[in-house]
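JOB MANIFEST
job_type = single_chain_structure
chain_count = 1
residues = 302
[input]
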Amino acid sequence: MAEQLNDRENSGLADKFLQYLPARFRPGAAVVPVVRLSGVIGAVTPLRPGMTLAGVARVLERAFSMRNAKAVALVINSPGGSPVQSRQIFLRIRQLAAEKKLPVLVFVEDVAASGGYMIACAGDEIFCDPSSILGSIGVVGGSFGFQEAIKRLGIERRLYTAGAHKAMLDPFLPENPDDVAKLKALQREIHQIFIALVKESRGVRLKGADDTLFTGEYWAGETSVALGLADGISDLRSTLRARYGDKVLTPVIAQPTGLLSGLLGRKSPGAGQLSAMESIAGLPDELISAVETRAIWAKFGF
């Protein structure tokens, strides 16, 4: 009898203790950490960096290491960018998923196109809104030709190189067909890497022909599902509640902010004045960066 009373007392104490623990640390709590991956991928300018592996690695590791996690949810909103950074982020997500044995659920917001779709392929399942845009599985590069403009202004281009192709595609020189052919060969090589990644990730779920899926075209949500680029039309809250119950916890894992991070990242005396000078000097870069970013989003109607 005394042993039963002791067990009840211990159980009561344990219950009271659990009340003071954050919900995600309580036994039996279903937790699905959420990571937002947004913006243009890669370094746009030194003063306005885009999404990179270095920038998201710590957040991903925190999400996959969370106690009681049943899965990891990625919310993606990106028009693409650097193919290298896109693939590195994809690989890191798959590595963590394998190490922690956790499924990855991807939820597309406005856009998961080009490199954004490459990252989305890291998900075991991809969900989107009917108005989301997915696809753009291709490679693009662009430049301008200024040779006639500088000629009218009386400017002479002087360029000195060592290496026959060092000045390839210089925008101040006339376009060389051989240089264009070399660029297109490089793009085709990168395109094949992208195609192989999508095929390996989506497998038999892909329903469209190669000459439809891999032309660089993009589609809205319903058509993307029909083509096998996504698995269904749904939102994060509805999907996670249906799978893990109404009490599923969805903590958003973000980069550290606030007072502590400010103290840890405090700069040396005089750094404020230096930053101001850097900002003024970097205004042209910031303007170009903003225009480039806007142009990438505008391609998809945003």
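[summary]
The CA atoms of residues 44 and 292 lie 8 Å apart.
The first helix runs from residue 2 to 19.
exit_status = 0
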